[in-house]
Design brief:
- By secondary structure, the chain is an alpha+beta fold.
- It contains 17 helices and 22 strands.
- The strands form 5 sheets. A 5-stranded antiparallel sheet has the order 2-1-5-4-3, with helices on both faces.
- Helix 8 runs antiparallel to helix 9 (about 260-275).
- It is elongated.
- The chain starts with 7 loop residues before the first helix and ends in a 9-residue tail after the last strand.
């Protein structure tokens, strides 16, 4: 430092300088001058500070000899810098950076000490070091592999708990070329090469029996790739879980198509082995009559372990066996060592760990191995889900079996009833014709000889015979809904409605009816039977509106939704009472009080036709006009004939 005289300018700068400044005697280290800022920092009065040796305010452990040595080194070298921790006037610790400079002042050799508060900087450095330590601790304990690779493909850093699954220690890969370490894993090499080309890579990679999900991110410095930062996560267990869940999903789909108890058993046993990978998987069916579980399905390895020719060769589980006791508890149970059971059903089978899952009242699923292999929570959960799925499938098979038997019984009964109705009505034709003929002969030949009462009786007989004939004809029409039905085909209801209105034109004109029609989506139907439905409903509407003495107005329309076309036929007649809307569809039943002719079979025929088409028909109760609705399946582009 250049020589400086004790000029007024120097004194002014020295006094007002915001940073503490002390001037030391170069030989003794004593303070010869201090500015106010220094005195305040060190907690001295200025007058007291002058003459004080530097050792008096040096940090603890910093002796006078140490201070003198530093002063002398400054005289020798010209400059020195040291950091001190001091306590301010409030007792708080401050970090001070002290810069010592040699100077000639008034021809005297001096050492000037410039103090600079670096407390904030030291705190920032401390916090940064603490964060770095925390980050290092975090990375070292994360269940991943964190690594960096330089532009030549050499590992420069490797850390994380995930290294253990690869048999590596933190830092062990550092200095090793990735192309040498993973030469046998082309997926890894390809991913690194892509990242070295500057492209970010996210990829799932197999490393031996392990599966890793790895992210490679290239970093750049002035446009040049400086390094690759990578994070790799071991997802072997996750992938295994996904594969198990996928297999379980496949099981659910396969079980949808199982049509027998045996098919369900074979599917469930196979899936159990796939998702758990144990050699023994088999299923038993419970017979309540003798309290015994009988084998109905098993995997090949299971039958081999039991030395059986097939699933049926496995041992039944009788009332006294331990497995049957587990079945009756209804709870999934793990047998740690099958050999220790007091009364197993198959003591000769070399099983150790066995998991038994009761399937409600249907039976039991058993999965096991020849060694002690505990079932973890994930495996137990998947198997319990499989058991629930199997129960649902067995419930469905049971329902379908009962339904099929009931359907077969109903089909036989329906066929017999149809045959009876046809034969009965057909065989009644001849005696009815005979009755009608002889009554007509009596009336024509002896009518003049009959008194008024006898003539009335004769009229009753004729009317009864005619009504019987109409009922027989109606019964024939009812039976022919099935016996003379046509094939289902794409049908345009608008054409059928037009044809029906044409056939009813005389009746429409006779009563002066107004009939309006809307649009009609195509349906899949027996065209002739659809025409019969329209004709019966329209004839009813014409008859009842005419009887009510109103100007008949009839509306026919249809809407389509969710593959179904709903037809609606309304009129302005007397309507249908609420207590009659169900009765009117019964054979030979008529709703309400009226004078119109009819047998009451028309609506019953409509209902039978609509039901044959898997639709439904109903009437809406009203006192001011009748509304009939019925549904039919909409026509599709591709359909299969029944």
């Amino acid at each position: 430092m250049a020589s400086t005289g004790d000029t007024p300018l120097y004194r002014d700068i020295f006094e007002v300088a915001p940073d503490p400044i002390i001037v030391h005697d170069a030989d003794t280290g004593a303070v010869v001058r201090s500015n106010p800022a220094a005195a305040e920092l060190l907690g001295f009065d200025r007058e007291e500070l002058v003459g004080t040796h530097v050792g008096a305010f040096s940090p603890p452990g910093y002796t006078t000899e140490d201070a003198n040595r530093l002063i002398q080194e400054t005289v020798s070298d010209g400059s020195k810098t040291v950091e001190w921790a001091v306590r301010n006037s409030d007792g708080a610790q401050q970090w001070i950076e002290v810069t010592l400079e040699r100077a000639e002042i008034d021809d005297e050799s001096r050492v000037v000490a410039f103090f600079h508060d670096i407390t904030d900087q030291k705190e920032l450095n401390r916090a940064r070091l603490e964060r770095n330590e925390q980050l290092t601790t975090l990375i070292d304990n994360l269940p991943v592999v964190v690594f960096t690779i330089d532009s030549d493909g050499v590992f420069t850093h490797s850390a994380g708990k995930g290294l253990a699954s690869l048999g590596l220690e933190p830092g062990e890969l550092e200095g090793v070329s990735v192309f040498e370490a993973y030469a046998d894993y082309p997926d890894v090499v390809e991913a690194v090469e892509t990242a070295l080309d500057g492209e970010e890579v996210r990829v799932t990679q197999d490393v031996g029996e392990l599966v890793f999900e790895t992210w490679y991110r290239p970093l750049f410095d002035d446009g040049d790739l400086s390094q690759i930062v990578g994070v790799s996560r071991d997802i072997t267990d996750l992938k295994r879980h996904e594969e198990r869940v996928e297999a379980l999903s496949d099981a659910t789909n396969e079980l949808l198509y199982s049509r027998s108890e045996g098919a369900v058993a074979e599917t469930v046993a196979g899936i159990a082995k796939r998702i758990i990978e144990r050699p023994f998987a088999a299923m038993w069916s419970y017979d309540e009559s003798d309290d015994t579980l009988y084998p109905i399905g098993a995997t090949g390895p299971a039958t081999e372990l039991a030395d059986a020719d097939g699933p049926s060769g496995l041992s039944p589980m009788g009332p006294d066996h331990d497995e049957t006791r587990i079945f009756h508890t209804g709870e999934p149970t793990v047998v740690e060592d099958y050999r220790t059971l007091s009364n197993p059903s198959s003591p000769e089978t070399p099983l150790q760990t066995l998991f038994c899952l009761p399937l409600d009242d249907h039976g039991m699923l058993c999965i096991g191995s020849t060694e002690s292999e505990p079932f973890d929570s994930d495996e137990r959960l998947l198997l319990e889900i499989l058991a629930s799925t199997a129960i649902a499938a067995l419930d469905r098979v049971e329902r379908e079996t009962k339904l099929k038997a009931k359907q077969t019984e109903l089909e036989r009964s329906n066929e017999a009833l149809q045959q009876f109705a046809y034969i009965a009505s057909h065989d009644l034709q001849e005696p009815l014709r005979m009755v009608s003929s002889y009554v007509d002969l009596l009336e024509s030949e002896y009518g003049d000889e009959l008194d008024g009462e006898a003539a009335e009786y004769m009229a009753f007989a004729v009317d009864g015979a005619n009504r019987m004939q109409e009922m027989v004809d109606a019964l024939l029409r009812y039976s022919r809904v099935e016996t003379q039905a046509g094939e289902f085909e794409r049908t345009e209801p608008g054409d059928v409605v037009s044809e029906t209105l044409g056939s009813l034109r005389m009746r429409i004109d006779e009563v002066g009816a107004t009939v309006s029609t809307g649009s009609f989506p195509a349906v899949r139907a027996d065209t002739n039977q659809l025409g019969q439905v329209f004709q019966n409903l329209l004839e009813n509407a014409l008859d009842y509106t005419d009887e009510a003495g109103v100007d008949p107005r009839i509306e026919i329309d249809a809407t389509e939704a969710d593959g179904v076309v709903e037809f609606c036929i309304t009129d302005n007649g007397p309507g249908i009472p609420d207590d009659k809307v169900e009765d009117i569809f019964e054979i030979f039943k008529r709703g309400g009080a009226h004078d119109t002719d009819g047998t009451g079979i028309g609506l019953a025929v409509c209902q039978r036709i609509v039901q044959r088409h898997d639709g439904r028909i109903w009437a809406e109760p009203s006192e001011t006009g009748a509304t009939f609705r019925f549904t039919l399946p909409a026509a599709t582009e591709v359909a299969t004939d029944e």
